[in-house]
Amino acid sequence: MENFSIRMADFNDPADAAAITEIVNSYAQEPQGGGKPLPPEVLADMVPGMQAVPGALTLLACLDRRPVGAAICFRGFSTFSGKPLINVHDLSVLKAFRGRGIGSKLLAAVENQAAADGCGKVTLEVRTANPLAERLYRRLGYGDPSGFATRFLDKPLSSQSLPNQ
């Protein structure tokens, strides 16, 4: 692979911030990502928002120094192992660069970072509408090692959805 590298993104670097939003927005526009671009305000708030979260990190996969993939991660803690963890919140490679093993290399880099940080595991979630990604994750050893199948559920919050107290 031509001049391939993976490096930690610098949230203060405008070029890295632009690369992160481009890669995530590109995925969002694909059918498995929802099929539409992210709103301008989400794009504007994405990197500053991550920067404000302690433990946020993003690894950028670069070809000839051009970012073509990203692993957006957050550090957390596993109560069942008593150790920190890294959660891969988003893993995406620009469509034109898929099929080159970039996603696998990004996950390996996340695992290396997690090991260096003393983490007990790496977690991720995958949309059921994205079977290609699930195959990649399972091929790389992600699954249900505890014997308990897990699902990731979410609930968007708005002022109307919050319970009255």
Summarize the model shown:
The protein is 31% helix and 25% strand. The chain is α+β, with helices and mostly antiparallel strands.
What is the secondary structure topology, with strand pairs?
Blueprint: E1 4-8, H1 14-28, H2 40-51, E2 56-63, E3 66-78, E4 83-93, H3 102-116, E5 121-124, H4 131-139
Parallel strand pairs: 4-5
Antiparallel strand pairs: 1-2, 2-3, 3-4
Features:
165 residues; Aminopeptidase; 4 helices
Q: Indicate the structural class.
A: alpha+beta
Could you tell me the number of beta strands?
A: 5
Strand order of the largest sheet: 1-2-3-4-5
% residues in beta strands: 15-25%
The rounded Rg comes to 16 Å
What is the CATH architecture term? 3-Layer(aba) Sandwich
Judging from the principal axes of the Cα atoms, what is the shape? globular
N-to-C span = 57 Å
**How many H/I helical runs?**
4
CATH superfamily: Gcn5-related N-acetyltransferase (GNAT)
- What is the N-to-C order of secondary-structure elements (H for helix, E for strand)? EHHEEEHEH
